Amino acid sequence: MAKTINKVELLGRVGSDPEMKYTASGIAVTQLRLATDRVRKGGEAETDWHSVVVWDKLADAVANYVEKGQRIYVAGRLVQNSWTADDGQRRYRTEIHAQDVVFLDSARNGNGGGNGSSHQADAGNGVNTGAYHQPGDEDSPF
Can you name the residues that pair with 101 across neighbouring β-strands? Predict the structure, then answer.
């Protein structure tokens, strides 16, 4: 079988404060919207909005240290979800399930800094655990 890759990297601004919930089994999951900008022909700026989902210890760190307007870097994988809504219509949602998050200009980055420098904390304070929770359909609290 040939190798395949599902990897997404985004650097953008958080559109609203992250929302953290817990699955029925007690696993933390945080969701946020991330805005990235691009310039179209003619010089017009256009914003793309991305739904980012973060799991487990990384979800706790994002919920505690990330706020609306902050710049973050997210690396993860693209996930397609579908469901039938209450009105009987089939709905679809594309999400980025984050495996790494780097806080780029956070004054609340857990390192005591606020100088605008880039920070990626290690597993000792829960920001980048290296572990990744593979959620099932029953896990999503959103």
Answer: 74
